[in-house]
Amino acid sequence: MVEPRTPLAWALHILAHGVLLLGAIFMVLPIVWMAFTSFKPPTEVSLWPPRILPMEWTLDNFRGIFEDAPFGRFFLNSLGLSLTATVSVCITSLAAGAIFGKYKFPGRTVLFMAILATAIVPFESYMIPLYLQLISLGWINTYQGMVLPTLFMSFGIFLLRQHISSAIPTELLEAARVDGASEWWILGRVIAPLSVAALSAIGIFAFIQAWAAFIWPLMVANEQELFNMELGLTAFQFRFTADYGKLMAGSVLSVLPMLMIFLILRRQIIESVALTGLKG
Amino acid sequence: MVGRLVDASNVWARDTFSRGNWRLILFCYIVLAPVLALFGYVRMGPIVSSLVLSFHKWDLINPIKPFIGWSNYAELLEDDNFWLSLKNTAIYALLTVTLSTLLAVPLAVFLAAKSRLSAVYQTIYFLPVITPMVPMSIAWKWIYDYNHGILNYVLSLIGIPAVAWLTDPGIALYALIIMGVWKVIGYNMILLLVGIRNIPSTYVEAAAIDGAGGWQRFRYVTLPLLKPILLYVLVTSSINAFNVFTQVYVMTLGSQSAPGQAVRVLVFDIYQNAFQYFRFGYASAEAVMLTMIVLGFTLIQFRIARNKEGQDG
């Protein structure tokens, strides 16, 4: 930023910083408000005029959600489903990315174009036939049914192909072949270790997306034992409409892992978003 | 540089291919097979099926699923719920995309300079993007609460009477738009910010030496060079906005105070036709319409991008 020189420029400079700060408060306020409400006793939740900070901090809301509803179970379900999606997306993206990036075989262009072209079709527009397929598999109300559409990510394949074809020199693979390495060994011991950065970016995204999954679990999981956090929260909302203290406690439980991931891997996540924007 | 590497790999690949190395081709297909099977089963298959389904009368109860041609589409065009949801979704998309982009551009310009403060602001503005939609919808529902919501409290301080944010049919859509802007602004900001940083500083410096002021540098140097990314931001956020569902479901449906019909959006209409009325063929026709809209946006982007290239060349 250029240092302002005139009084008018200074005034504008200060104004801009003020607006920036106000905007930042607007951004964090819903999250902060949610967090503080979760620590308030019921009498304080509906206090008028409202106060941001609890007067008396309590963990009763958090205790409550584990006693009134199986939020522990929901949390573990979310964790299991998201980790499965992450592992599967990483493996499929690496395998297909390596093959499309470094090998030539009949059908390569057609197959890659098919994967790329279907990437823009929104999930909501093909979820109905997928649901019918699930019925014929007998996978309604199962974990495998819930996780199925999150196992594969077109964008992951695209990103890994991009990375592998441009950042890993073909000479390296040739050298390994000359030394008698098999293609499997090259895939696992040369390409995979050199793709860790791209893979972890894709893995983070797969995890975040799977964690927030809602419409598909809403269709597939009708039994409470299978609910992820998002479904659990929604169902909880039906039952405890007025109990915002507990609702906020449940919400905190769903948001917290994402916030932790973001604060730890902030730079990497922001860079990956920038990358998807410019290369997608 | 990248181009050269890709060329080199192609030359190598052609050599091995011409040697008739069938084992290498076999290896490719063995590695790809599980991925392609998954792709076919969860992506390609359902996309084709939704098209086929849309031409059939398909419900869960009746075992006979006759081919009915364009009937589902014809019925859709007469369906008030479809038009209402299309209208609501279009208003939601138009306003969310316009507002979030208009706010993200100055934000990105201001934060483009690398500094510690800029990094802090980027983190804060990006936070909503990373938070899951369901808990944040519940939090916003609490903010919008008629009796105890903090928003109505703030408004009451400046003398504005309480607003029924989510239960007044004329206002609920705009309440959703405010939240939509809050959620997406950080994403747009990051994309634009990278775009600005990628503009060679010599361009901006040259303009400054020629005596261009801050606004002129933005208007005649930064903005024209930012156009491709601006276009990308507009198209991706329009596509995302057309798929709006979760926040509508959580904030305006489901609870006792919900008006139900207040904000009918396209994906909700699809969801209801399929999973409450079990009209899978009809819902598929509606889903195909959604795909067409998204495809339309993408084609517009390609078109403009190509025209731009044509002019430059």
Could you characterize the architecture of this molecule?
By secondary structure, chain A is mainly α. Chain A folds into two domains: about 55 residues, no CATH class; about 170 residues, MetI-like fold (Orthogonal Bundle). Chain A has 15 helices and no strands. In chain A, helix 3 packs across helix 14. With about 325 residues, chain B is an all-alpha fold. Chain B folds into two domains: about 50 residues, no CATH class; about 240 residues, MetI-like fold. Chain B is globular, with a radius of gyration of 25 Å. The relative contact order of chain B is 0.12. At the A-B interface, helix 1, helix 4, helix 5, helix 6 and helix 8 of A face helix 1, helix 2, helix 4, helix 5 and helix 6 of B.
Secondary-structure blueprint of this entry?
The complex is a heterodimer of chains A (280) and B (313).
Chain A: H1 7-37, H2 42-45, H3 60-68, H4 71-102, H5 108-117, H6 127-137, H7 143-147, H8 154-167, H9 170-178, H10 183-194, H11 196-211, H12 215-220, H13 229-239, H14 244-264, H15 266-279
Chain B: H1 2-18, H2 22-53, H3 71-77, H4 80-111, H5 116-130, H6 133-143, H7 150-157, H8 169-197, H9 201-209, H10 214-242, H11 246-252, H12 266-275, H13 280-312
Helix pairs in contact in B: 3-13, 4-8, 4-10, 4-12, 5-8, 6-11, 8-10, 9-10, 10-13, 12-13
